[in-house]
Design a protein that fits this description.
alpha+beta; Jelly Rolls; 2 helices; seven-stranded antiparallel β-sheet; single chain; elongated; four-stranded antiparallel β-sheet
Amino acid sequence: MSEAVPIRPSTLYYWLAVPIFLVGIGLSIYEISHGLMHVADSLTRVVVPGQTTLNLERGKSYTVFYESHTTVNGKLYSTHQSVSGLECHVKSVNGGEEAVISPTSNPTQYKIGGRSGRSILEFSAPRDGPYDFSCAYASGVHGTNVVLAVGTGFGARMFQAILVIFAGPLLGGLLSMAVFFWIYIRRDNAKASAAAAALLSR
């Protein structure tokens, strides 16, 4: 009587699908805590009325966000008032050339890590270099101090973070299923070969 031929690969290999799926989940969790939660950190915040200096690059589009809930230098700002009376200017430190500021063409909102903001303005620098970004209320308009955040590429970074968050579990699931079925097919073929060999040996 011939000995039974062991079926390869072993059923233990099915467990390979589990860590592959967990890696996808882990990647998603990592991106939430280290990517999405810090995507707004690249924005330069300024309390207005006030001003700050920005190093801008020609050709890039910069967005100004109104952060209605945020913390700057340990102070909490929770303001939900209208900022329609706020006038902002972006002026070159070197040549005095001023960038044209316009209302945002692509409204964007975020609520990340205790910060809530929405886009209100956008501009492009006419040339590389440092610029004074300043805002103040128009004459006759009275308003409290609010926080504005300025930056470029915010929408792309947020999209990338969200894509990784959703892609991690999806790709992990697909790869784990592929491994599972690959092992299943290999074992099924091995079983068929063993059955054929058993028939020939009779």
